[in-house]
Amino acid sequence: MLRIFTDKITHRNKYIFNLMFKDMLGLDFELTDKEVEFREMQGAKVSYSINPVSDEVHFSARHLLLESGITEQNIALFEHKGTKAFFATGKTSALPFDVFAASFYLVSRYEEYLPHIRDEHDRFDAKDSLAFMNGFLQKPVVNIWSLEVKEILMRRYPELVFPERKYEFISTIDIDNAYAYREKGFTRSIGGYLKSLASLDFKEIRERSRVILGLQKDPYDTYDFQLKMLHKYKFKSIYFFLLGDYGVNDKNLPVESEKFQSLIKMIGDYAQVGIHPSYGSNKSKEQLRKEVNRLSKILHRDITQSRQHFLKLTLPDTYRNLIDLDIRHDYTMGFASQVGFRASICTPFNFYDLDMELETHLKVHPFAVMEGTLKYYMKVEPEDAMSRIRPLIDEVKAVDGSFISLWHNDTLNDQKLWKGWKAVYEEMIAYATVTQKPRERKPKAGPEN
Question: How much is the pTM?
Answer without folding.
Answer: 0.93
